[in-house]
Structure of YigZ family protein:
Amino acid sequence: MLKKDEYKSLTTPSKEVVFKDKGSKFYGYAFPVQGETDIEQALEQLKSQHHKARHFCYAWQLGKTYDNYKANDDGEPNNSAGVPIYGQLQSFEVTNCLVVVVRYFGGTKLGVGGLISAYKTTAKMALEQTKIHTHTIDKQIQITCEYKLMNEVMRLVKDLNLNIIEQDLKIHCKFIISIRQNDFNKVKSRFEQVYGLEVKILE
């Protein structure tokens, strides 16, 4: 179960998978994507690769908070293709991800139930062929201080297990520090309690 400040994404595209049912072939693919341009490029690539296929059904999800998504049946009966694919994105808890299932019709109709099962199974197979990584949603603060306070900042960074993104150690030191969203207010408060540190939230 993901925490509120965590999200999962793919580290690599999937290998091609194939599911067959009553002569129809379903080719499944999962891609890491950052936006709709990546999605369009992946779909164009598959359409040139499978120029004789009848259906390119897909679902995608974008954003660290899973707030942007779309499912497309591409000519299949309503909710028989895009929604089952999207259901697998939810099941695997992945975002910034596109799953496409390309169908070659085999001459025998599968019915809506058969289609739902085929698209769901193919999407699941594709996602099982990827590597999935869990990320944290982080915020950043900038700490500015005189050089004599540098050790105090470093001690807090170590004690609180934080990541320094940038540092500039001169007469006046500057640190940019990454903090997990869930811990942000508590950690920011710890720095603010040290006299002489200037703490600024970075958007």
About this structure: The mean pLDDT is 95. The first strand starts at residue 6 and ends at 10. Residues 111-128 form the longest helix (18 residues). The helical segments are 36-49, 82-92, 111-128, 150-159, 184-192.
